[in-house]
Write a structure and sequence with these properties.
By secondary structure, the chain is mainly α. It is about 50% helix and about 5% strand.
């Protein structure tokens, strides 16, 4: 402690280091009054109801779109047309190039002329590798 007191008295970088090593003092959270607690609870419940209503609206919209799609496919006159409408080209089902993929490591930053870094997208990576942004990583360049 005497060493710490001497370093603090001297000031400078030692004082900065010692302050950095000290644990932060937690601030006391003032207790909420009954009115504040009731208001916060009411706001939380209203938020949860609103989010659930939004979720249900989206789900209803998705289900309507799926139902309309299947009704449109069923309305096609021939079986060949129905098969063609439902066929998906496996080369067209790659993820969009602007979508970030989950990884175990943070994204790589590239340095541009302005000195700032930005996240490299899959499209930029494909372009830099000479793929021109297409191909979906199939190796056909």
């Amino acid at each position: 402690q005497a060493l710490a007191a001497a370093a603090l008295a001297g000031g400078g970088i030692n004082q900065l280091y010692l302050r950095a090593l000290e644990p932060p003092v937690p601030k006391a959270i003032p207790p909420l009054s009954e009115a504040e607690l009731a208001r916060g609870t009411a706001l939380a419940k209203a938020y949860a109801r609103g989010m659930m209503a939004r979720h249900k609206r989206r789900e209803r919209d998705y289900n309507n779109k799926i139902r309309l799609k299947w009704a449109a496919v069923a309305a096609l006159p021939t079986e060949a047309m129905r098969r063609h409408a439902l066929w998906v080209d496996p080369d067209d089902v790659i993820a969009p190039l602007h979508r970030r993929l989950p990884t175990h490591f943070p994204p790589a930053l590239s340095q541009d002329e302005s000195g700032g870094g930005h996240i490299v997208t899959r499209a930029q990576l494909a372009e830099w590798q000479g793929g021109g942004g297409g191909g979906g990583g199939r190796g056909d360049g």
